[in-house]
Design brief:
4 strands; 4-stranded antiparallel beta sheet; mainly beta
């Protein structure tokens, strides 16, 4: 649950946001949303409740058109297969 809505998502980047709070950049693929799904979501972990793992495949996010600004200090990035520019 996040902001009163049930959401199904796959976390891609976990760390802290600009204010120093723990946050996650995740790909929401199902559940409730005020907008069209699927889409990227930036969630403050302090506002997440009832989280649990689910069976099923991993959902990768759609194209990255812009640099993410959700996470300032990255602790975990699951996008290890993405080639980084040098």
């Amino acid at each position: 649950m996040y902001e009163g809505r049930y959401r199904e998502l796959c976390p891609h980047i976990i760390g802290t946001d600009k204010s120093g709070g723990e946050a996650v950049l995740a790909w929401q693929f199902a559940g409730e949303s005020s907008g069209q799904l699927p889409q990227w979501r930036c969630l403050k972990l302090s506002n997440v409740s009832g989280d649990q793992a689910r069976d099923g495949r991993w959902h990768e996010g759609g194209s990255h058109r812009t640099t993410q600004t959700c996470i300032k200090n990255i602790d975990l990035d699951v996008n290890v297969h993405v080639r980084r520019s040098r």
